[in-house]
């Protein structure tokens, strides 16, 4: 072996050992972390995690190390929570101390600590409080969010009719509808589905969803200081984040020119007015940069999650036509064909409501949640977890709990129905996470899912080009998010 190569390898091994020793000292010097598999130098436990199916790997490790265990991903130690009891105890019972956001390097480089998703401390509290209040109060004296969703559902039906009952891939159309709802709330705009500006926005969101759900980004998030300088799809993701920010900034500038404080039109106007109120406060979190990042977070969370759930849900309904038939019966009984579905209908439609719940449980969209972090040293069970430690609550282990949901691997709306056919609520239903960091758009997303699914099935019969028995609902990606396989279906108008 070349002497210089040998020296280089030796130095690399020494650095690796020092990093490992430093990491162990950092963890155990400040606390008693839960048990876990022994990590290797530099790479930690990365070889014990299947990057193509992280949730399954974590569930397997939980069988060996228990419901609370430690992993080392790169040089970062993370504590994994598996099962309802551990997740509830952390996120709800000790919610204040587990409410920080853990490290997500691919988001951190794009957001720089701003916005809703990765911010912490007082910044996060202020931005989240403002966003929740603005979304909740939206439509006072104007169109409510429900009316916006109903309007978009009508546009969706018109677009689906244009397919003329021929086989089509629904990905694009189902992405347009929730994206337009967010556009209406943030920009006060509705885009035609062929509008080039709208198509550009959808392209950025769709590309990044696929990239962030890939195994490569899991590698990036474990070794950002090294992988950042290597070629790979992370560069495309960062560029797309920047382009999305530029897209939103142009809208913000236009809003600044046309703002009427006596008549706020949308989220951007409300944020600009808040900026004006706090302009004398040098430490105010209400800045243009925070507005852009918050709007980008609302787009990322509010578009792709809902569209993916719709797309996955229709695939499942294709596989189980008997379930679709029962929904049609309930729609005919409660709504009929002459009016649009509304949220008041939901309480009168327990079966449809249960199907929407079961779709969210079954697809397990964000299986390992977004990482949390502890905001201070905390005694958790018999362990002492140091401040700043990243926490991974495995939502899969809650949504697939076999005591709460018998035969969890089977799609069964009965998981959410009692013996009288009424909707049965479950504390284990956590597709939006739980506690202080629960998804800020939960109520809007649940509204969209009910109204979009119901409106589609009010107007169409779903038909698969292949035998329903041959439909495979297995996800094609199980990294950050689970993505359904590509498929075609026919929307047959009534």
UniProtKB/TrEMBL annotation:
Location (main, coarse): endoplasmic reticulum
GO BP: organic acid metabolic process; xenobiotic metabolic process
UniProt keyword Oxidoreductase present: yes
EC code: 1.14.14.1
Residues that coordinate or bind heme: 439
Record-stated family: Belongs to the cytochrome P450 family.
Protein name: unspecific monooxygenase
UniProt organism field: Vombatus ursinus (Common wombat)
Taxonomic placement: Eukaryota, Metazoa, Chordata, Craniata, Vertebrata
